[in-house]
Amino acid sequence: MKKVVITREIFDDAVELIEKHFSVVSNQQDQAFTNDELVEMAYDADGIQTMSTDRIDGAFLGKCPKLKAVCNTAVGYNNIDVDACTRRGVMVTNTPGVLTNSVADFAIGLMIATCRRMGEGERYLRAGQFKGVYLKQTLGHDVHGATLGIVGFGRIGQTIAKRASGFDMNILYHTRNRVAPGIENQTGARFVGKDELLRQADIVMLILPYSADTHHYIGAQELALMKPTAVLVNMARGGIVDDAALVDALRNKTIWAAGLDVYENEPKFDPGFLELENVVLKPHIASAAEPTRRAMSMTAAKNLVAALTSGEPPNLVNPEYREFVKT
């Protein structure tokens, strides 16, 4: 019987689905294993269901020669060296679609929390400083009527735009490939260049994939283009923003505030953020609604089962892997 490894805790129904087909080594105790410990678990495995915190690269694959499928429990897969998997004939899958609405909801919430200084207000109250209301207390920025610039305009970006239209926002977007006119009409978004978006937007929201091309997509130069009253919201991946440059920009009031759900080298993050009041910090929880996380868990499990039975998983990232499969 084929062996599969589940690297972190998933929902029981997904484990049960996989167990119907394969011998399973699961981590339902949710222990954080080192890379070497994962290799010990998976060296003879045919498939592995991973989380975004698991690094699957050429070195890992070289120590797990039987591996045929890496099924990520996330829509992003920058934790996986897809090219290395492809060259070894290993399928890579993700979980697109199932988290779109939950992440879009969270994006709107983080945007509002940042613009209206909600985290700062809660800290103020918890510290016992709330003695009454006064006119200039914790003044923030309105979201309604503001200009929202969305960088990255796939499923999630488009869904955020639709929600933002309910706040009568002026919506700009930038992406590598402009979307069809019909999508622009549905979302009320207007395509502009990157620099124009940064200069015009009151709120810049990042929801683009991480890659070598988007590493430090927002750095000191880009932050300097933004309005001093602007807000940056990163809903994408750590590394898209140069966090050290962002800390400096927030400290020096180059921009007004930031809302972050992701960080470079997470779970580590720049300690400078903790010294600042004008940043809202969340621990990469945009998709953390129970129905969504259940759907992610089951989608990844179904991908794994299909990959190792039919060889046709529904969310295959690298169809070109077939060119390298040994016959």
Kindly describe this structure.
With 327 residues, this protein is α/β, with parallel strands linked by helices. The chain has two domains: 3-96 and 290-324, 3-Layer(aba) Sandwich (Rossmann fold), CATH 3.40.50; 100-281, NAD(P)-binding Rossmann-like Domain (Rossmann fold), CATH 3.40.50.720. It is built from twelve helices and twelve strands. Helix 1 packs parallel to helix 12 and helix 5 (100-115) crosses helix 7 (155-165). The model has no long low-confidence stretch (mean pLDDT 96).
List the helices and strands and how they pair.
Blueprint: E1 3-6, H1 12-19, E2 23-26, H2 35-42, E3 47-50, H3 58-63, E4 69-72, H4 82-87, E5 91-93, H5 100-115, H6 118-126, E6 147-151, H7 155-165, E7 170-174, H8 181-187, E8 189-191, H9 194-200, E9 203-206, H10 220-225, E10 231-234, H11 243-251, E11 257-260, E12 279-281, H12 290-309
Parallel strand pairs: 1-2, 1-3, 3-4, 4-5, 6-7, 6-9, 7-8, 9-10, 10-11, 11-12
Helix pairs in contact: 1-12, 5-7
Main sheet summary:
7 strands, parallel
Structural domains: how many: 2
Structural class: alpha/beta
Say what the CATH topology of the largest domain is: Rossmann fold
Task: Provide the β-strand percentage band.
Answer: 5-15%
Biggest sheet, spatial arrangement of strands = 8-7-6-9-10-11-12
Based on the model shown, name its key terms.
327 residues, alpha/beta, Rossmann fold, 2 domains, 12 helices
Task: Describe what is shown at a glance.
The chain has helices spanning 12-19, 35-42, 58-63, 82-87, 100-115, 118-126, 155-165, 181-187, 194-200, 220-225, 243-251, 290-309; strands spanning 3-6, 23-26, 47-50, 69-72, 91-93, 147-151, 170-174, 189-191, 203-206, 231-234, 257-260, 279-281. It has 327 residues and is an alpha/beta fold. It has two domains: 3-96 and 290-324, NAD(P)-binding Rossmann-like Domain (Rossmann fold); 100-281, Rossmann fold, CATH 3.40.50.
